[in-house]
Amino acid sequence: MVLEARELTVVYGGTAVVDGVSLTLPEGPFGLGLIGESGSGKSTVARCLLGLVTPTHGTVRFRGADISGLRRSRPYRRAVQIVVQDTEGALDPRMRVGTAITEVLRAHRLVPRAAEAGRVTELLADVGLTAEHAARFPHQLSGGQRQRAAIARALAVRPRFLVLDEPTSALDTTVQARILDLLRRLRSEHRLSCLLISHDLAVVEQLCPHVIVLHRGRVVEEGDLGDVLHHPRHPATRALRDAVPRLTPATPHRASLPQRPP
């Protein structure tokens, strides 16, 4: 297993916002969907996995080692990366895209200085951007381009595990589909294990064969995506499934139909 959480519990102000959550992520390519309504504890679980929140109870292990002793470890920081929802806040607005990626390469000492520009170009190409985008500031990019740049920066350290925290919810439907296609390709090519956090089953369906449903901090359902979608056992799962938009063919009013010429 790349990452394993056992009985995670996080208590804030006497309330358990995460209550006994366990999950495992094997070596990639693999996708696990962590779904639930707003406030169900999804992002808190993700922060525990990233070492940003210390659980009140329970453990997180990375390849068998408790991450409490790895948080400042450069190999762990490289292996586990996050792509967030906020495309505007994900990148420093004062820093050009190429500089933001170069900063990561230097912090982890991944390539010689003379090779940095070439590596930045490779990373941008991998996510469908060009070398010209390296010279732009985040505000000069579209929402989809900013998300691609953020993904390129995450890939710069050659991670093994990605947390995808609502990575497409701020994008329109067309751009969302393109980003999901990109993530699906990158997961396969880079053999990534991904945890996708979302409340949208239609998005999860694109990337994850296995899902966990959270409700009020607890796991209420877990299994193969098809089983959970078609045979939900918990009301929270049924509510999420029923919230997925469905297109129904409209029946035109008779008077609106074009009249056949005599």
Report on the structure:
Residues 241-262 are annotated as: Disordered. InterPro entries: AAA+_ATPase (IPR003593), ABC_transp_ATP-bind (IPR050319), ABC_transporter-like_ATP-bd (IPR003439), ABC_transporter-like_CS (IPR017871), P-loop_NTPase (IPR027417). The chain is of the alpha/beta class and 262 residues long. It has a domain at 3-91 and 161-245: Rossmann fold, CATH 3.40.50. The chain contains 9 helices and 10 strands. The protein has helices at 42-50, 74-79, 97-107, 116-126, 143-155, 173-189, 201-207, 225-230, 235-242; strands at 3-12, 15-25, 30-35, 57-62, 65-66, 80-83, 161-165, 193-198, 210-215, 218-224. The chain has a 6-stranded mixed β-sheet, sandwiched between helices. The longest helix has 17 residues, at 173-189. It starts with a strand and ends in a 20-residue tail after the last helix. 39% of the residues are buried. The model is unreliable at 247-262 (pLDDT under 50).
Q: Which terms would index this structure?
A:
single chain, 262 residues, alpha/beta, six-stranded mixed β-sheet, four-stranded antiparallel β-sheet, 10 strands, globular, AAA+_ATPase, ABC_transporter-like_ATP-bd
